[in-house]
Amino acid sequence: VVRRSLLQRYEHQPFISCLAGFYSCRWKRYQRERTEPGKCCCSMVTFCFSLVFLYTWGEGKNDYNNFDWYNYGNLGFWFLWSLVILIVAAVLFAYISLLLVLAMCLLAEGQQLYLHWSHKIGTFLVLGFSISSLFALSILWRDHGKTVRLSFQVTAPYLHIGAIVIMVLLAWPVALHAIRADKKVTQVIIVGPYLAILLFLFLIPLGMYSPCIREMGTLGPKPALIGHRGAPMLAPENTEMSFMKTIEHGGDGLETDVTISYDGVPFLMHDDTLRRTTNIQEVYPNDTGKAASFFSWDALQKLNAGTWFLKNKPFVGMGSLSEADQNQAMNQSIYTLSSFLRLADSHNKLVIFDLYRPPEKHPYRNLWLRKVLDVILNESKIKRHLVLWLHNSVRSFVQSVAPGFQHTMGRKAPIEDLLKHNIVKLNLVYTDMSSEDIRKYAEANITTNFYVVNEPWLYSLAWCSGAHSVTTNAVHLLKDLSQPLFLMAMTPQQYNIMWILTDLTSAFLISLIFAL
């Protein structure tokens, strides 16, 4: 407008003609800047992938220990890889978020985002890291997807409200940039994806379910806590100290793993070899790869089962160990099944254990179950109702010689089959958690236990779903929860009203912003 006015009034004056040309150049540059939203799209895509990976990895914290032990087995040394990945993901997400905020501010002012070459490289590094990490998770850790889906059952209502708030805040820069665009195509490119995402968020509660949305007074009792190999965050796993820590923190049961020594003594050991949880490299350096069951009990007694815990510092919480606890951990030895059962019986704690059959050429390969039953029934004389019998082979024989055990199945099955075999409890991996199945089994007086549940959000989901108990590494943490996290004390109908009001309010505000 200025250029045209100057040319019409002063077209014969050189200075004014030059000034008009200057305005013409500025106007063309402004047109070019305000109609190029494409350079912000890469930052937006990178932000989305980075957010998805950060959420996915953050919600998988329950299995960080398994991830780190997997790397330990492959690399031969201990390192908290899971925590490093989480920190890197958080830093990269913060970086790309800052770039995106700056881009939105510049676009709101009608200016173009000029990225320095270093930021361009940084953006593509974040994008590459996020995509490659998500791909690796989908291939190498497929169960992780189930964990993320479970997390949505407790976080989805809150994520929905947060996403709606973000879309309202983004309405101003989106509307401003769309209005400034000259071409209809550009306006559609800007506004179309925004409205599509907004519509998706408006309707997503239709396919959302959360057992933590429930009316006050309908929440079931807090799930019982069974210490997974004792309290492995506080003491060396499968040792007397570990089980005592579980008992001290109010655990309701103890879980362990049982194998048989070469001379027929059942003892507690999870791994096939002794390399990870003993000092065998110092005592028997030539036998580090030898199966644990091929050692005699006398040889096993010479090993220390606690120094590895202090040396590797594998768990969060190690720094809180007192000097007395450290001294106690350094003096732990391999624990026998008989001592374990006597300890549980004296404190009236439930016991559940995985039984490992000895390998071929072992003298007790065909007698191992009888040996275990002999220890349970004759040596320890534990109260039979405290034993959750999990091993499925020769179950009918066990029921005949040891009536009173609580027979437990390690997989889902039709209720008719479970009742036929006198099953009273299911011991399931937590990724199989379903409030509908829990309710169905409970109606048949079959309780459910889920393993391994360490994170408060996952324990909260088990609580809201009606689980009877969980096996956990973190008895000392979960015992302090007085109510489930993310609990919404309202009926589903009340939540639907809140959802509709949220959508209507946000739609009104966004429409008002576009009108302004």
From TrEMBL:
Which GO molecular-function terms appear in the entry? glycerophosphodiester phosphodiesterase activity
Please tell me the species this chain comes from: Rhabdornis inornatus
Spell out the family assignment given in the record's similarity comment. Belongs to the glycerophosphoryl diester phosphodiesterase family.
Q: Name one Pfam family in it.
A: GDPD
Task: Name its cellular compartments.
Answer: Membrane
**A GO CC term?**
membrane
Keyword Glycoprotein belongs to the record: yes
Annotated GP-PDE domain residues: 223-482
Q: Which domain of life is it from?
A: Eukaryota
Q: What is this protein called in UniProt?
A: GDPD5 protein
Please give the coiled-coil regions recorded for this protein: none
Q: Give the principal location in a single coarse category.
A: membrane
